[in-house]
Write a sequence for this structure.
């Protein structure tokens, strides 16, 4: 039994006879948290809930990479509304001429939802 529950044909009462469905019909079991209980056509009643944009920003900190990320996200939140996530694309250290670390730089992709 899939997912530890009854077979789809038993749960939905279809008995394996799909001849009554239109040719283009797509049915899928939906997990309701109590096992697979419903059928849903993903093309029916669907609406786009949001559109997001991704922008790349860089931030530098003298303390750590983590502080650079916090600084970059804090600055982005001053300008951008609807921040959803940040993905760290690159990390690099800035060095002085004598080889000491002077800064921690991150390049990150920030995702925000468009209004």
């Amino acid at each position: 039994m899939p997912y530890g529950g009854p077979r789809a044909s038993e749960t939905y009462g279809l008995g394996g006879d799909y001849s009554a469905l239109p040719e283009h019909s797509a049915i899928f079991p939906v997990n309701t948290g109590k096992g697979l209980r419903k059928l849903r056509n993903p093309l029916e009643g669907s609406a786009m809930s949001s559109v997001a944009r991704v922008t790349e920003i860089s931030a530098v900190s003298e303390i750590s990479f983590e502080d650079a990320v916090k600084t970059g996200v804090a600055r982005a939140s001053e300008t951008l509304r609807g921040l959803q996530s940040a993905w760290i694309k690159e990390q690099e250290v800035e060095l002085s001429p004598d080889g000491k670390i002077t800064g921690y730089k991150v390049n990150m992709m920030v995702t925000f939802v468009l209004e």
